[in-house]
Amino acid sequence: MTGTLDFDADRLRPSRDTLLWAGLLVNTELVLTFAYLLLADVTITEWRYLVFPFVWINVAVWAFVRTTPTAGSDRARYLGVAIAVGYFLLLAYVGGLVKPGLVAHSHAGGTVGHNHATGWQVSWLPPGWGPAVTYIGSFVQLTLMPYKLVGYVALAYLVYDTVLDTAGSAVSGVLGLVSCVSCTWPVIATLAAGVTGSGTAVAAAASEWSYTLGTVAFLLTVGLLRWRPSFGGRL
Questions:
Q1: Digit-coded pLDDT (tens) for 134-161
Q2: In Å, how far are 95, 123, 153, 159, 221 from 117, measured between CA atoms?
Q3: What pTM does this model have?
């Protein structure tokens, strides 16, 4: 395949207003973090873990602000919504936001203790990680951490925009999305982190660096979905 690599640099260049709002957002996050460290009885051994959630949230907010999906037809809009919702649910499942409930777990061969707590619970984790809302029910379990929830919604929103932008017809939109490596990157990265067996040096390394690798994968995915390089005018 021949062609030239084209991209619109203006789509990635922040405006003055964007920089001002970004500064306000970062300052707010710093205040919340220092307030949490002062009030909570915690010891921080890896400061990078305090930064990762804000990287996700800030980049996600930037993606929302800089993306304005435009549908050429109602059919393309419905297709985009369907694919984006499916993509979000896939990320939510693979990323641990949604898991089978106690009934499904017991049917799969697991054990459920009689004193297993069910219902809603709020965990006051460091900003970005928390406040984490968890729910344990018979059919579904939820672990809603702010940074993951916002990040996955942003990815789904960018996938929706990608479908609308590439869909000269509904069929071409589907084919363009299937061939989009950036759309499947975080799913593959998350699955790869889980296939290494426990108790091995590789598993230990993967566990230690999983948040770093996950953040890098998230940034690359947002960049590719937002940039969408093309060859010879084709995605």
A1: 999 988 999 999 999 999 999 999 989 9
A2: 22, 14, 29, 37, 37
A3: 0.76
